[in-house]
Structure formats: structure tokens, C-alpha cells
Amino acid sequence: MINNTNRRDFLKLMGLGTLISLSPISLSAATTPHIVIVGGGFAGATCAKYLKMWGGDSVDVTVIEENSSYISPILSNLVLNSQKTTSDLTFSYTPLKDTYKVNVINKTLSSITSSSKSISLSDGTNIQYDKLVLAPGIDFEYTNSYDISKITHAWKSGDQVNLLKDQIQNLKNGDTFVMSIPKAPFRCPPGPYERACVIADYLKNTKNITVEVIVLDENSDIIVEKDSFKAKFDEYGINYMPSSVVSEVNDSTNTIQYVQNEVTKTLSADVINVIPNQKAAKIIFDAGLNSGNWAPVDTISYESTIQNDIHIIGDSQGSSQPKAGHIANSEAKVCADAILRKVNNEVLFASPKTNSACYSPVSSNEATWLTAVYNYNSSTKDMQLANTTDFPASGTASSSNYDDMFLWSGNLFSDTFK
Questions:
Q1: What average pLDDT does this structure show over 406-413?
Q2: CB-CB contact of 262 with 228 (8 Å)
Q3: Which end of the chain offers a freer environment for a tag, N or C, measured as fewer CB atoms within 10 Å?
Q4: Could you tell me the pLDDT band of residue 30, with boundaries at 50, 70 and 90?
Q5: Where are the beta strands (DSSP E) in 114-182?
Q6: Can you state the angle between helices 325-343 and 399-417, rounded to 10 degrees?
Q7: What would the mean pLDDT of 299-322 be, rounded to a whole number?
Q8: Which domain does 41 fall in, by range?
Q9: pTM
């Protein structure tokens, strides 16, 4: 068993791997605090699990999640080249319920009433909370209305990824594939670049066909791992077009209009994959917890700077950290620790750290990697990149990285969902 003091060391390291048994906090509250978490992804599920691991029976934890299982976007680009299936990436909430005694309700959140500390669900149920954690993920800003079953985003795993997979499978020699990359920030910064590589490799080296692959990037350049991705783009003959802002998508003519250097251009393609610009989930806006497109928080606890007793973690929060599954897991642990301290009137841990790490497949047997450590800045109440030449760090494409990718993802999946 690890005591509460040693939990601080755990938070400093924020490592993944073998789960550690931690002793429950002894709370002094007359009634058991009720922590409600909205969202069951990497942020929400991790927060629920660690609240119970660290708080034990001294806290009640409820997760509101509309889906009965979670399909990971991590590794989902490997569905496109048939190395994985969405079933391989699907995780049950049974361990949360049975092992950690978390109450999981598969309903949709309708509204938040912060004045009475209550939420309403889609079936009319009202639930009271002492602390509310919002981990609802992202929402999209579409350029215009079009049929996403024809022109997919495939940026939320599940049916969309399978639709894009089928479209890729049906491409023929001489066809054209166009994908777009949104303006940063967006979920999983390396993800679109790895997708372009995985698809181009699959078409060229598995299907053995020649397909023109065009990438329209709203950013002025590749935003992460530039050298690694550029080398692969050159190897596969990908036509990379930076500073290309998608302005209209037409699912009837299968065309995409974009603006580059103040000139409007149109491309037609056999398959178009548009990843729209992104923002916090709708409930953040409905509850008035946003500033611009994201929700501002004090990252010492991830409590909203707009509304007390509401914490926001994962992709919707508006800190300087990237938006991805690994760091969402890291944020969730900081948040869980802070909530337990708050309900017990303890001083918050003053110097939390978070870690962002990911592996990106760039072919059927190679991957790159990227990692960074963030420290809490008490002046800005934000996380800042560790002041060391070691971070951020990255690794070029290799087969050993490809093998390590499954160890990394397996540890993350286990730490979150098992």
C-alpha cells in the first residue's frame, strides 16, 4: 500500500504501466461526497478509476457516458490498412463498475445547473454533485453542411473510421485521394500526418496501385515531427499543400474548395477525408464555461476559472497542453488528486507534472514517437514545457518503434480501462 504522501511522488512521475494499489484517503465530511464525471474516454475513465483507487469508499463516483463501450481513436489509423479492427480498440466499462465500484450511467447529459450543483440527463433524471468533472471531448466546426457518410472525418473512432476504411479499400489505380488537416489546436497533433502516411503506404505497398495522395494543411507547415513526416511524404510521393484553408465541401460532386495564398481553388477526388476544425464539446458552450473555442482552467486542479466546483479535463480544456489520449490520462490523475484534497480541505499539491507521449505509425511496420513533460506555472496557472533540452523529444521511423508502439498503447489502455 502507498500512503498519501507517496501519492505526490506518483503524481510527479505520472508513469504508465503496472497499476499501483493506493490506500484510500480518510475524509472528514459528514456525508460521502459525490463526484460526477461526464465522459468515459481517456480523461473521464482514468479520473473515475483513480478517484476510487485513491479515495476508496470515502467518495461516490458516477460516470455519465452515452455509449456502452469506448472505441479508442489511438491506433485507429491502423484500421484503415486492416492491421486493426474497431473491435480490437473497443473497451468495456465493466472493470470500472465491478472492480472500482463506479456507477456508470449510459445516458446523455442535457444540462448543468451550477447554482444547485445538479445535472439533467436526456431521460429527465436529475443528479446532484459535490464536484463535477467534464471530459466530453471535442466538437467540430464544419465549413458547410455536407453528408459525412460520404465525405468522412473519421476523427471520432467507430463507424466513421470503418466508412473511410471501405472507401480506401475501393480506390483503384489512377484514382485521387484528398485529405485535409485542421488549424491547430486539434485532437492528436501527429494524427493527420500519420494517417496520410499509413494510407499512402497501404495504397502503394499493399494494394500496389498508384493513387495521387493530396494533403491540404490549414497550418503553414507540418506542426509536429516535421523531419520524420516530411521524409515519409517524400518517400510516398504525397502532394503536401500547406496554408490551404478548406472553404466548401460538396458531397454531390465529390469536390473540395480551398483557399491558398488568397486564391480559391477546387479539387475533385475519388475519396475525400475532411478533418474539420475543432472546439470544445457543446455542453461546454451551453454551460457558459468557454472562452473562445476552449474551456479555461487552473491546471493545478483543472477547475474551471469561470465556475467553481466544475473541473474540465481532456480535449475540451483550454490549457497550453496538446489534446491527446495519453496526456488526458495524465491530466485526469492530477484532477483526481486535487478533488480528493479539496473535499478533505487539504492543501493542493503545488507542483504537478503531466506527460504527453505518443507513437505514430507511418507504414505497416514502422512508427515514430514524440514525448514532452509539462510543469505547473503558478503565475499563469497553466502548464509549461519542462525547461530542459530533453523535451520535447522525438524518434524517427523504425520497426523497433513500431513494436514499442503496442507496448505503449497497451499500457495506456490498461491504465485507463482495466
A1: 98
A2: no
A3: N
A4: low
A5: 118-121, 126-128, 131-134, 138-141, 176-181
A6: 30
A7: 98
A8: 4-137+281-352
A9: 0.93
